[in-house]
């Protein structure tokens, strides 16, 4: 399925749309929802050391109707596939999906010849906006994923991106 | 009293602005408070110290899809969030913020406020019922039993205040307590020895009436998804949240007027609206502090607390106060 082509509306309000997307990017409410061990890292992101709330994204809503972004944190098994799909369908538009961890990206370690019960990637069942690699990804990586989603919405990045070689020189 | 048409209109605009700002920024205060209590910083990046966060949330909620699921009762589903907001807004019309800052001085304003508070409960019941969702219906039933249980000790406690001040007008009750903290109803030990207990009972009941943690059985996330607002997205949910925060503000105003002397300064200096605001924000901070410090109770413990402890205590309190007034 991959990405979804949403036809753009006929009437466009350029500045208003920009404002709305800026607001949406700054209050991305995730859904209280975890599938496997990546969810532990997601909880840690909400905790005091990493603190997702700095970006206004700590409001984990228990109901899919109120959530904006679904963080698929963990392995989607065939048994959970229907539940995850239903939750995605229940979310009200506009909605985004972050695939967190290798299992949600492509099935991760379960993508093998004898795989019988793991869905190989969240993008098999719904459109995914941001992929966060890692097994599991560190909380910083999830924050980076949220910032990438903000960049996708607003077109500009919150902070300048640090080059990997600079990180190497710092340590 | 001035009966010109401009006074109510100006007050309407003023109170709408006050209510809107409070509903938006109490959410910010709550998130900041939660952050600080949990050794986090809370919202930081959206504006200075996250001050633009309520604006972003509000615009986002307004621009979200207005979703009415199939199988809901269409009219009631749409009416319920509005009904959650209106009683809280109406309550501001009779609350005296200072000696002359009051839209309408109603003779039975205490009674009116409690009647409006019961309508807010109806909103939760309607919202839960109309959603056609099992969690929402359970939440609505819980909310009704909780509100009924806590209204009784609350009203019985208010009778003690009405007895010692001799009026059901909030303005008169506040004027009665002017002139330093020893005149306040909470410390009026010469009128009834149990007034501090009245205050504690009333404060607990006001937290329970506004469905705040540790008594937020109506939206217990660990059991009931999101309670009565499970099916509400976008601004329907936003209105429920704003209604909750406004009910908190009204509750804090009531506690301030009934027990803490309204706009009176503790030492009799410069009484004015700033003392009133200071007191209600201290009370609101206490409510937020309690929410992020104590875990949620269970529904039967909550009802036991009301029926087995608060109601007997408030009845004894009423009798003792009546005896005090009769004897002294």
Give a quick set of tags describing it.
heterodimer, A: 171 residues, mainly alpha, Rossmann fold, three-stranded parallel sheet, 3 strands, B: 328 residues, 66% helix, globular
Q: What would you call the shape of chain A?
A: globular
Q: Would you tell me the structural class of the helices and strands of chain A?
A: mainly alpha
- Given as residue ranges, the uncertain stretches of chain B (5+ residues, pLDDT < 50) are none
Report how far apart the termini of chain A are: 41 Å
Helix amount of chain B: 55-70%
List the helices and strands of chain B in order.
HHHHHHHHHHH
User: From the coordinates shown, what is the CATH architecture of chain A?
Assistant: 3-Layer(aba) Sandwich
Description:
The complex is a heterodimer of chains A (171) and B (328). With 171 residues, chain A is mainly alpha-helical. Chain A contains 6 helices and 3 strands. In chain A, strands 1-2-3 form a 3-stranded parallel beta sheet. Chain B has 328 residues and is mainly alpha-helical. In chain B, helix 1 (6-37) crosses helix 9, helix 2 crosses helix 9 and helix 9 crosses helix 10. The longest helix of chain B is centred in the first third of the chain and has 32 residues, at 6-37. Chains A and B meet through helix 1 of A and helix 2 of B.
Write the layout of secondary structure elements.
The complex is a heterodimer of chains A (171) and B (328).
Chain A: H1 14-26, H2 38-46, E1 69-73, H3 78-90, E2 96-100, H4 102-106, E3 130-132, H5 139-154, H6 164-170
Chain B: H1 6-37, H2 53-62, H3 74-91, H4 109-131, H5 134-165, H6 170-176, H7 195-209, H8 221-224, H9 234-259, H10 273-291, H11 299-327
Helix pairs in contact in B: 1-2, 1-9, 2-9, 3-4, 3-9, 4-5, 5-7, 5-11, 7-9, 7-11, 9-10
Give the gist of this structure.
By secondary structure, chain A is mainly alpha-helical.
